[in-house]
Amino acid sequence: MSVKSNPFRATLAKMHPYVPGEQPQGGKFIKLNTNENPYPAPPAVTAAIISAAQAGLQRYPDPTASSFRRQAAETLGLPGPDWILAGNGSDEILTILVRAMVGEGERLRLPYPSYILYRTLADIQGADWEQTEFDKDWKLPAAFGEASSDGEQKLRLAFLPNPNSPSGTVLTPDEVLEIAERLPCPLVVDEAYADFAETNCLKLVEQNENIFITRTLSKSYALAGLRFGFVIAQPHRIAELGKIKDSYNCDALSIAAATAAVGSSEWLADNVQKIKATRRRMEQKLTEIGFKVTPSQANFVWCQHPHKSHKEMYEQLKKSQILVRYMDFPEWGDGLRISVGTDDQVDACLMLLAQM
Ligand code: PMP
């Protein structure tokens, strides 16, 4: 085939596009399918966006989002802003990490079922990936932290979503540290949902230069529409990642908004409490109506029914304008992942499920 008829790199031929959850724009859907926050973002965010817009947008933004990094370092109790690199959503941060550490023919590792994007990022690099399967109770086998039996020197990076998606389960910081110490490569702990959990691994980055923690403003800060995420690691690691990122990967409005958001600690604490209370209710009610529910430390719940078809339940809910996520993991199993919405949204969903 000539280059003209197929100009794309060979690796694209075996790839499929990463398919995110359904995102109807407008309409009256109750949206419980992509783990967004059902409540509006901290009020300080809107004021910050307006004031940044009024200041004018004719100049390029601050390339390193310094105001955000200063505020985030303070809020999170980090030694300083040089422990943070900001990006256009944590998906961009994951891309930067893979581009920086995993080359063609090399390999990354992920648990399964987990966030499928990691595999797509490996594919884009022309790299390989290997999966460690959770058991049916979402325990991660020790093999996840071990060297590969074949060609371990090719293993360049491991991803651990913690809390995991779709399960909402967590490993403790001690368990994560033990994995990081055993692994022959760096470990990315994807903490997209950590604000909803009882523990997080932030302190570990100070102990181990091979741990990278990623965070997002899409979930606990209710800013999925803004696109803002970041990675925390030791400053010499952050400096290397800075070589890979686009010059102006975060725009001026997003930087202003994200800075205001991470300064809104009281808002965050209130919001997280509300979501956790609704999550507890969801877990109880789903159990009452016959689901096997995995106890969650995130803003969603993974549930499986012993007799009923998950696909059909998903479709019936959709007919009633309620979107949840039907997930089918070949050779592992399927189920429903339901995001924690407002109490009213969750009640509407639970009522229909109880009638099915
Ligand atoms: N990591 C995990 C585990 C996720 O579920 C998501 C949300 N799809 C992300 C990262 C990406 O979040 P965002 O790009 O919105 O920051």
TrEMBL record:
The keyword Secreted does not apply. It catalyses: L-histidinol phosphate + 2-oxoglutarate = 3-(imidazol-4-yl)-2-oxopropyl phosphate + L-glutamate. Pathway: Amino-acid biosynthesis; L-histidine biosynthesis; L-histidine from 5-phospho-alpha-D-ribose 1-diphosphate: step 7/9. It comes from the Bacteria. Its EC number is 2.6.1.9. Pfam families: Aminotran_1_2. The modification N6-(pyridoxal phosphate)lysine is found at K219. GO terms for biological process: L-histidine biosynthetic process. Signal peptide: none annotated. GO terms for molecular function: histidinol-phosphate transaminase activity; pyridoxal phosphate binding. NCBIfam families: hisC. Homodimer. This is Histidinol-phosphate aminotransferase. It comes from Roseimaritima multifibrata. The gene is hisC.
